[in-house]
Design a protein that fits this description.
single chain, about 100 residues, mainly alpha, 2 helices
C-alpha cells in the first residue's frame, strides 16, 4: 500500500532516512502503522466475507428462480398432456368391448 511505502525509511548504508523523525515520533508512527495494518486486514477480511455471502445468496436466489420456472413449464406440459389424453381415452373406451366371460381372469 502507498502509505506503508511512504513510512518505510531508505535502507541503504550511509544514507540517512528520508524522514527525520525523533525516536519518539518514529515509535508513534510505527504504532499507528501497526494499528492501520491490523485495521486494514480486519476490514479486508470482513469485506471478503460480505462479498462471498452476497455472491452465494444471489446464486441461491437464481437457482430458486430457475427451479420455479422449470416447475411452471413442466406443470403446463403435464396439464396439456392430460387435456389431450382425456378425449382420446373417452373415444377408445366406447369402441372396445371386453369379450371375457364373467369370473375368468
Amino acid at each position: 500500500m502507498y502509505w506503508q511505502q511512504r513510512l518505510l525509511p531508505l535502507e541503504r548504508p550511509g544514507v540517512r532516512s528520508a524522514f527525520l523523525f525523533s525516536p519518539i515520533e518514529e515509535l508513534i508512527v510505527s504504532e499507528f502503522s501497526k494499528q492501520r495494518v491490523v485495521a486494514d486486514n480486519l476490514f479486508s477480511k470482513l469485506q471478503t466475507q460480505s462479498l462471498s455471502s452476497a455472491r452465494i445468496f444471489s446464486e441461491m436466489e437464481q437457482a430458486a428462480q430457475q427451479r420455479e420456472a422449470n416447475m411452471i413449464k413442466l406443470r403446463g406440459l403435464r396439464l396439456a398432456h392430460e387435456a389431450s389424453a382425456k378425449p382420446a381415452a373417452i373415444a377408445t373406451q366406447g369402441k372396445t368391448k371386453s369379450h371375457r366371460r364373467p369370473g375368468s381372469k
